[in-house]
Amino acid sequence: MSLHAPVPPSSGVGDVDARCRWLAQRFDAVRSRSAALAAPISAEDAMVQSMEDASPSKWHLAHTTWFFERFVLADGGPYTPFDPAWDYLFNSYYQSAGPMHARPQRGVLSRPTLAQVSDYRDAIETRMRARLQRGDLDTRLLDIVELGLQHEQQHQELLLTDIKHAFFSNPLHPAYRDDLPHAGGSTAALSWIARQESIFKVGHAAWPGDAGFAYDNESPRHRVLVPAHALASRPVSNAEFLAFIEDGGYRTAGAWLSAGWDAVRARGWTRPLYWNEACEAEFTLGGWRALDPQAPVCHLSYYEANAFARWAGARLPTEFEWEQAAASLPVDGNFVDSGRLHPSAPANASTGLQQMFGDVWEWTSSAYTAYPGYRPWPGTLGEYNGKFMDAQWVLRGGSCATSADHVRASYRNFFPSDARWQFAGLRLAKDSA
Ligand SMILES: [Fe+2]
Question: Where are the alpha helices (DSSP H) in 39-138?
Answer without folding.
Answer: 57-68, 86-90, 114-134
